Amino acid sequence: MAIKVKLGVVLAQRNVKSKDLAEYIGITEANLSLLKQGKVKGIRFDTLEAICRHLQCQPGDILTLEDNPADAAE
């Protein structure tokens, strides 16, 4: 199983620019980009809360648990 980040999808659905979200939650656009790409090891709850507040969504709209084909081979 793997956690997948769907932040880019939610941003597109809400027609929100990454720059605006980064400014609202107080992180750099570079860090937001890493988050969108799923290249981070974790996210602070207050950051996740700010993202959800700005995008008017739930954490489950942004983060999903998906089967990892590599896990099935073990």
From TrEMBL:
<feature type="domain" description="HTH cro/C1-type">
    <location>
        <begin position="19"/>
        <end position="62"/>
    </location>
</feature>
<dbReference type="Pfam" id="PF13443">
    <property type="entry name" value="HTH_26"/>
</dbReference>
<dbReference type="InterPro" id="IPR001387">
    <property type="entry name" value="Cro/C1-type_HTH"/>
</dbReference>
<dbReference type="GO" id="GO:0003677">
    <property type="term" value="F:DNA binding"/>
</dbReference>
<dbReference type="InterPro" id="IPR010982">
    <property type="entry name" value="Lambda_DNA-bd_dom_sf"/>
</dbReference>
<protein>
    <submittedName>
        <fullName>Putative transcriptional regulator</fullName>
    </submittedName>
</protein>
